[in-house]
Amino acid sequence: MQVAPGTPTRDVPVDWEALEDAFENNAPEVHSYLHLVTGDVLRIVDGIADPQMHARIAADTNYLRIDPVSSREQYRWMERYIPMVEDPDLQGKLTQAIDGKGAFRRFKDVLMAYGPERERWFSFRSERLRIFMEAWLSAHALSPVARPVWTPEPPKAEPSAPGEPAPEAAPRPADRRGRSAESLRKTLREISESLGPRDLDTIVAFAEFVRTRRATRSFANHFSDSHHGHDDEIPSSQEVPSGEAPPSSED
Length: 251
Known about the structure:
single chain; mainly alpha; two-stranded parallel ribbon; 5 strands; globular; disordered C terminus
């Protein structure tokens, strides 16, 4: 629902990557919300999250329901991108891939073997998503601002005795975590290149489940802190049945 004209804008430290994921995922069982104070995106999946928790979030004025881009519009993006492909053979494969049910999955499967073209498609799609996100934020009188970055201060070194060399500063934990995270991302990318579509579906589904669990626990802690003394009202999440994965967002 759009706000009335003339409504003052509200600054929100938007997490663009998470918001992009929410706008892209239009599966009916997935519901995404933007927290208007922190800018975080909370994703609720039917059958995994506690229905009572879902109702509480929907009623919380600090959360705004995100309207994802429709499948029809995302299909148009594929149609518009195909003529931009210079390789006639690949252009023909992509045209054939989007014909009929399962178009999104077949389109991605074809691009799996064309790394540079796949990256160009991701950039093209991200640009379209960004346009939709900015229009949606503007329609709700929300102004995206930079997210705060916390940088811990390095520990103060003890003064050395006269004539002794000053001790070298130890690397900060944040730096080590950053290097480790980047190394893991690189490894994950290398592994994904060698996996088939079905393996990637399983990994993506598990990642969605982990993201949902983390967001659910974050909301539970927030709700617990703001309702101290009412433990029976703290929302909880449900485990995914053993051997099953959360539903995929696409066909």
